[in-house]
Specification:
The protein is built from four helices and no strands. By secondary structure, it is mainly α. It has one domain (6-95). The longest helix is centred in the C-terminal third of the chain and has 12 residues, at 69-80.
């Protein structure tokens, strides 16, 4: 998972949109399963459970520290709630004429 430009991303995965998260990267495996943080690749990479796909990479931890337990807990909660996406709420509101 990466916030870098697409051509510099390892595994071709992006968190730029809900669509790219569900698409996943090179593996084709969705980065997360809505409502199931325990089975979500995003959590496994963020907590160093996937060798060579640690997030951020181990070699860059001096500059980009790993997520804290609280940050991981927040992401797990977001996934378990179905990972609501702000643009989805905006689209829903605008389609209702609001």
């Amino acid at each position: 998972m990466c916030r870098l430009p697409r051509d510099r991303q390892k595994g071709k995965f992006s968190i730029a949109s809900r669509k790219t998260i569900l698409k996943g990267g090179q593996s084709g495996e969705p980065a997360l399963l809505a409502g199931n943080s325990g089975a979500s690749k995003l959590i496994r990479t963020a907590t160093d459970q996937v060798e060579d796909l640690e997030m951020p990479p181990l070699a860059k931890r001096g500059t980009y520290p790993a997520l804290t337990r609280d940050e991981v807990a927040l992401i797990k909660s977001w996934i378990d709630e179905g990972f609501p996406w702000k643009t989805a709420a905006v689209e829903s509101s605008s389609s209702n004429g609001k």
